[in-house]
Amino acid sequence: GGPAVDVKAEIQRLKRERNAVILAHYYQAPEIQDIADFVGDSLDLSRKAANTDADVIAFCGVKFMAEVAKILSPQKTVILPDLKAGCSLEDSAPPAEFARFRRAHPDHLALTYINCSAAVKAESDIIVTSSSAERIIAQIPKDQKILFAPDKHLGAWLSRRTGREMLLWDGSCIVHERFSVTELLKLKAQYPDAPVLAHPECPAAILELADYIGATSGILKQASERTDPVMLVATEPHIIHQMQKAAPDKLFIGAPGADGNCGCNMCPYMALNTLEKLHLCLRDLSPVVEVPEDIRLAAKRSLDRMLEMSA
Ligand code: 13P
Ligand code: SF4
């Protein structure tokens, strides 16, 4: 072919030309995190998307996150490098089934993890993220019954943390389910002083081995706050890129799967976004993320409640 395009320079140029902002989640590839204007957890990214004055939001994350940006900023063009960037948690809660579940429990408040479709958000009362859930649950009257979807592991952990019984939907994240207890125990034996930092999407057997449990932003904070020279990280390993930047002298090891390989348990959906696809979507302003207006308005209600209650 012809002369190689300097993809990074083109992204910067197109970003200015389009008055675009690039938002990235911590699970994106390092080169995407490094070119983004803002990197954050799900709550940070929702707030940024609601408040930016850019005309275009190039969302480097998965589709439900880009939908949140569109729901909160409908007048903006929201683009996603690869529309196939889904999420196993979203897939585990088909909107029609979720609506039936709700109708079967009319006396329950529907507290729903942000990792779901816009249609499921539209059927929910309050959205939560890992970093805001405890704060939000604390504001719900004690006698109010709660159902929680779609992540059963996060839901069970929140129940243990808050002492609130919740009716749980049976969904999970394929990445966090894949960590092996046996292999993690072997790794801990190798590094007996290293704390385990885990995301609450992990099953209970992994969380029992954790010294810290929190959202990606919380795990990242541990990198600089803790003095331990080695830390074991039980979440999608791309977060380690920011941990390493925050604490270059420390060693961060991604938790292993059943094959014993460390730091290899990546999210296949997040990995669909590449620098090349980011370039093309800024150039073509496509693919765009759209949400039907009736669903958008209903979903905005539950998202606005999250933003208010986590302020
Ligand atoms: P947080 O960044 O809010 O912890 O979310 C983790 C996640 O699984 C996103 O898909
Ligand atoms: Fe969904 Fe899990 Fe990937 Fe997050 S890491 S986007 S929860 S599949």
From TrEMBL:
<dbReference type="InterPro" id="IPR003473">
    <property type="entry name" value="NadA"/>
</dbReference>
<dbReference type="GO" id="GO:0008987">
    <property type="term" value="F:quinolinate synthetase A activity"/>
</dbReference>
<dbReference type="GO" id="GO:0034628">
    <property type="term" value="P:'de novo' NAD+ biosynthetic process from L-aspartate"/>
</dbReference>
<dbReference type="InterPro" id="IPR036094">
    <property type="entry name" value="NadA_sf"/>
</dbReference>
<keyword id="KW-0479">Metal-binding</keyword>
<feature type="binding site">
    <location>
        <position position="42"/>
    </location>
    <ligand>
        <name>iminosuccinate</name>
    </ligand>
</feature>
<feature type="binding site">
    <location>
        <begin position="199"/>
        <end position="201"/>
    </location>
    <ligand>
        <name>iminosuccinate</name>
    </ligand>
</feature>
<feature type="binding site">
    <location>
        <position position="216"/>
    </location>
    <ligand>
        <name>iminosuccinate</name>
    </ligand>
</feature>
<feature type="binding site">
    <location>
        <position position="87"/>
    </location>
    <ligand>
        <name>[4Fe-4S] cluster</name>
    </ligand>
</feature>
<feature type="binding site">
    <location>
        <position position="267"/>
    </location>
    <ligand>
        <name>[4Fe-4S] cluster</name>
    </ligand>
</feature>
<keyword id="KW-0662">Pyridine nucleotide biosynthesis</keyword>
<dbReference type="GO" id="GO:0046872">
    <property type="term" value="F:metal ion binding"/>
</dbReference>
<comment type="pathway">
    <text>Cofactor biosynthesis; NAD(+) biosynthesis; quinolinate from iminoaspartate: step 1/1.</text>
</comment>
<feature type="binding site">
    <location>
        <position position="130"/>
    </location>
    <ligand>
        <name>iminosuccinate</name>
    </ligand>
</feature>
<keyword id="KW-0411">Iron-sulfur</keyword>
<protein>
    <recommendedName>
        <fullName>Quinolinate synthase</fullName>
        <ecNumber>2.5.1.72</ecNumber>
    </recommendedName>
</protein>
<dbReference type="GO" id="GO:0005829">
    <property type="term" value="C:cytosol"/>
</dbReference>
<feature type="binding site">
    <location>
        <position position="173"/>
    </location>
    <ligand>
        <name>[4Fe-4S] cluster</name>
    </ligand>
</feature>
<keyword id="KW-0004">4Fe-4S</keyword>
<dbReference type="GO" id="GO:0051539">
    <property type="term" value="F:4 iron, 4 sulfur cluster binding"/>
</dbReference>
<dbReference type="Pfam" id="PF02445">
    <property type="entry name" value="NadA"/>
</dbReference>
<keyword id="KW-0808">Transferase</keyword>
<dbReference type="InterPro" id="IPR023066">
    <property type="entry name" value="Quinolinate_synth_type2"/>
</dbReference>
<comment type="function">
    <text>Catalyzes the condensation of iminoaspartate with dihydroxyacetone phosphate to form quinolinate.</text>
</comment>
<comment type="similarity">
    <text>Belongs to the quinolinate synthase family. Type 2 subfamily.</text>
</comment>
<feature type="binding site">
    <location>
        <begin position="113"/>
        <end position="115"/>
    </location>
    <ligand>
        <name>iminosuccinate</name>
    </ligand>
</feature>
<feature type="binding site">
    <location>
        <position position="25"/>
    </location>
    <ligand>
        <name>iminosuccinate</name>
    </ligand>
</feature>
<keyword id="KW-0408">Iron</keyword>
<keyword id="KW-0963">Cytoplasm</keyword>
